[in-house]
Amino acid sequence: MLFSANWFYKKQKILKRGSIVNTLRIGVAQVPQTSTIQTNCDKALEYIEKASGCGVELLCFPETHLSGYRAGILTPDAPCDEDGLKFATELISAKCAEYSIGIILGTETPNPGGKPFNSALVLDQTGETLALHHKSRLTPVDAKGYSQGKGPTAFTFKGIPMGVVICFEGFRFPETTRELARNGAQVVFHPQCNHVMPNMDWKQPIHEALIMARAGENTIYFISANMSHERNNCRSLVVAPNGLIQKASVLTQEKLIVADIDPALATHAFLQDDLEKMAKALGEA
Is residue 17 included in any domain, yes or no? Predict the structure, then answer.
């Protein structure tokens, strides 16, 4: 018998015997990406306002949303517009403070030692920086345009331990998410930028299976934000700690996904080798 993520939530709430469930409303912005910082910034400002109107407390944008991705959007050797990125980031930070919303923003960071970093900037609801993560695992195409960072990166939002991994490092390197979970992360965000290049149509089911695995194997929330593109090869997904999809986008469509999550359901059951927690996670209790 197949069970939905909603069934999982209902069951957990029954087990809590009427206790209050402390949820966090998160958003995922599946939005188009261009080679122009101003256009990308305007889209981010639009979605911050839209998400705030839906009660979203923490909003995730796709990989390199602000700067544009150095594969298919920009060329690998495109100049890094440090001043343009700084100005746009200040506008976005002010918008976060105005609407009291936190965000995970895909961007790039200048690197005096070479190629820029592929980065995820985490801002809190006052617009202050909580973390800056640089993608630590690069595909061969990534490596043409970016320097390798160190990762993964942990942060805390509203008292909830969280973390961020970017695209490839979350898909193909489970140890990155596992490290965050071992250190207490209950929610991991996964900005990605995936569209079909020649002979890559086969990737969609694999990408989505890997996203579900990251959540289920660590019993955490795994939230993946892809950009919108006419040739997407992965949906944006909110995956619950049981590994089931709670919310999903539609391929190619620009859309805001909104989901209420309960971090208390992220138990790290299998990491702790706790029989009671594992029984609950496996539906045996």
Answer: no
How far, in Å, are 122, 209, 284 from residue 30 at the CA level? Answer: 17, 19, 36
Question: Are residues 93 and 222 in contact, defined by beta-carbon separation less than 8 angstroms?
Answer: no
Strand-pairing partners, residue 107, are 119
Q: What is the pLDDT of residues 231-249, one digit of tens each?
A: 778 999 999 999 999 999 9
Query: For the domain that residue 223 is a member of, what is the CATH number?
Result: 3.60.110.10
Cα(247)–Cα(261) distance, rounded to whole angstroms?
11
Domain that holds residue 118: 25-280
- What gap in Å lies between CA 140 and CA 146, rounded to an integer? 10
Q: What is the DSSP string of 121-155?
A: EEE-TTS-EEEEEE--S--HHHHHH-B-----EEE
Choose among 43, 63, 49, 259: nearest CA to 164.
Answer: 63
Q: Is the separation of the CB atoms in 162 and 252 below 8 Å?
A: no
Question: pTM score > 0.85 for this model?
Answer: yes
Burial bucket for residue 15 (CB in 10 Å: 0-12, 13-18, 19+):
exposed
Q: Is 204 exposed, middle or buried (0-12, 13-18, 19+ CB in 10 A)?
A: middle
pLDDT digits (tens, 9 = 90+) for 200-238: 777 888 999 999 999 999 999 999 999 998 877 899 999
- Please name the residues in contact with 16: beta carbons below 8 A apart, sequence gap of 6 or more: none
Number of domains in the chain: 1
Q: Is the residue at 11 inside a domain? A: no
Instruction: Please report whether residue 206 resides in a domain.
Output: yes
The residues with which 108 forms a beta bridge, in sequence order, are 118
Q: Does residue 237 lie within any of the structural domains?
A: yes
